[in-house]
Amino acid sequence: MDVTNQTDDEQARLWNGHAGRAWVEAQEVLDQMLRPFEDLLVQAACAAYGGRVLDVGCGTGSTTLAVARRLGAKGRCIGVDISDPMIAAARARAEQEDTPASFICDNVQTYAFEPASFDMIISRFGVMFFNDSVRAFANLRRAAKDDAEFRFIAWRSASENPFMTTAERAAAPLLPNLPSRRPDAPGQFAFADRRRVCNILKESGWAEIDIRPIDVVCTLPEKELIHYLTWLGPVGLILQQADDQTRSQVIDAVRAAFDPYVHGVEVRFAAACWMVCARAPSASSSYIHMLR
Ligand SMILES: C[S@@+](CC[C@H](N)C(=O)[O-])C[C@H]1O[C@@H](n2cnc3c(N)ncnc32)[C@H](O)[C@@H]1O
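Above: query sequence and S-adenosylmethionine SMILES. Below: predicted holo structure tokens.
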């Protein structure tokens, strides 16, 4: 589907534009960097479940494919994402490696999933971008079977994740138009506030909510660092329109600011995240809750 023609959502434009292309461009590096989170989700999805698993905001499909591979004949994994270029990349990967995963290109807030059709819903950093999170999570609740688990990973605050804001802090003096991050607005750190996440889940009909901090070491090759910082995040976005002189000044300043994270051929940082779990209450447990 051509999402850009159907919505004026800023996030849809971003993920169908520069951000989507950047994630496709950097797919291998990002998948390496975020691999520890994939392992956590695959372990959880495949330890207890067969059946149908939905991967929300699946992007270029790494977690969807990993779950599908591990489930084998025990089940099926379906990825959903609003980004045309990212879903095209995910489908190409599935075809290339002959993994029976399938993908839906649509908006999780509004897509008409088959009701009560998923045994588990997972997401690696794919749920912080909705302009109406309650609507999106309620839609996922309808798509989940009773007792299905919803498990996702989201970033804690920007201040707990200094690696993620290194580029913009270093580039700010050179890029006066660099947009500042808005807490609570859709975006990478929208779920930093644990209470807010809990309220969104409760309001959208999820129960047994458990939100735990996890601190995970992530790595990427040093030789990919310039590519990473010139394509991704707010600095990557602005650099696409910058003149050559500004661009090279920004790259020098930003690359130097990453020095504390460089250890030989490897860039290493700690990612401060939430592991969030919730469960779709069954009709009987909702009834008991109402009686209390
Ligand atoms: C940070 S990326 C994570 C991608 C993937 N989960 C991964 O770990 O590689 C966030 C993803 O959420 C998707 N997304 C944002 N808003 C969405 C929406 N309303 N419906 C579906 N997907 C959405 C984006 O297109 C993007 O692929």
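The chain has a mean pLDDT of 92.
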